[in-house]
Amino acid sequence: MTTTAATALTRPLDVRARVDAVVRTGVGGVLWLGLLLVTYWWVADGGVQDLGGWADGLTSIGRISALWSSVLLLAQVTLMARVPLLEHAFGQDRLAHIHRIVGFVSFDLMLVHVVLITWGYAAGRIGSVPATFWSLSVDYPGMLLAVAGTACLVMVVVTSVKLARRKLRYESWHLMHLYAYLGVGLALPHQLWTGAQFLNRPAATVFWWTAWAVAAGAVLVWRVGMPVVRNLRHGLRVVAVVPEAPQVLSVWVTGRRLELLRAEAGQFFTWRFLGRHGWTRANPYSLSAAPDGRHLRITVEVVGDGSASIAALKPGTRVLVEGPFGRLSARSRSHRKVALVGAGVGVVPLRALAEGLSYGPGEAVLVHRYRDAPLFREELETLSRERGLRIVALPGRRRASSSWLGSGVTPLDDARALLGLVPDLADRDVFVCGPTGWSDSFTRAATAAGLPPDQLHVETFGW
């Protein structure tokens, strides 16, 4: 039994899951409190009374939309700052989803602010809006910086739309997404120099400076400082690159005191392999073996420029990482029994979980859908013999684009077929990894089969 599994045996299964649930509730409460506070100050400063006139009403609504937008903008920066408390409670997939929603709402409110404030300053005359916008941009302190910041945010939002993301490589999208930090930073002078709602009362001033300091501090500490410290401490290097299947490779990495990374089976890191073309761009890869304090292993499907260059890695190549990330781990577990469900290379983190989780014979089942040949066949068979892991293979193409099942399954609907494979589904934590569309299909089937939502833990390949 691995060290990770032995440790899990001594820990009540639901302690960390319950703590994380409390944190999620608290984070939501803090965000709503921030929105309520700025709304209260807007009302106290006459925001409602100003709605009585056309031009004043436009300006007043423009101000409250700016206040809400600013709160949400700082929230989305903090959500993706790699803060461990948030990472543990939400996981990267869920944080990215919330970040996306909050980002689009914040951006829409910012556009409302720009349009209505300009319209209001133009005395409510639509024909005067262009000239007023030009005057505000060049004459008011900090406005040119705010315009530049808005342009950065527009670029980030446009490239975040699904249609645009399909046409971009992950590495290019990630690089452009970093301009969001520049956009947020350029907005600050405008808010402080011309935003009366930010500075006209001590409580508001303390609130806004604290919010900005927390967001900036989180980014500097967890996205910049900690990765530097961890990589200097551990000195990671490639040990070997091993073919697992056609177009699938495993990379073994070693370093100093790897137990201090506190990585768990099922989690992922973002990786930079020095010396290769495009090394500055990070790629997210899951661990495919339970961490043992001496080595880390990732398994990669060669599908793009970043993954293709991995085949040329040499032993001794320096490695930079950020992480570990994700809740597809023992941390989210609340039941003794587990089901691990994956499609294709989605079995990678599940293979690590099958090794790292604690369970007795029959308490863990691995359901693997694959097209040609399964990954880690021998390793999984060993786990089956030694630990009692039950393996359910689902070979072949998907029987329909809306189904998570392979073509060889009996003609039952997805939910009933799932219950046929895992009759006690509702008594298990279910860990799922695979392409987005497939994972969505499985989620629908699991929900229809009676699985409580808090027992379903999903990680997808989407970005």
From TrEMBL:
Q: Where are the transmembrane segments?
A: 21-43, 63-81, 101-122, 142-164, 176-194, 206-225
Which positions fall inside the FAD-binding FR-type domain? 231-331
Q: Indicate where this protein resides in the cell.
A: Membrane
Gene3D superfamilies named among the record's database cross-references: Nucleotide-binding domain of ferredoxin-NADP reductase (FNR) module (3.40.50.80), Translation factors (2.40.30.10)
Which key words tag this protein in UniProt? 2Fe-2S, FAD, Flavoprotein, Iron, Iron-sulfur, Membrane, Metal-binding, Oxidoreductase, Transmembrane, Transmembrane helix
What Pfam families does its record include? Ferric_reduct
Q: How the protein sits in the membrane?
A: Multi-pass membrane protein
Q: Which cofactor does it need?
A: FAD
Protein's name in the database:
Ferric reductase-like transmembrane domain-containing protein
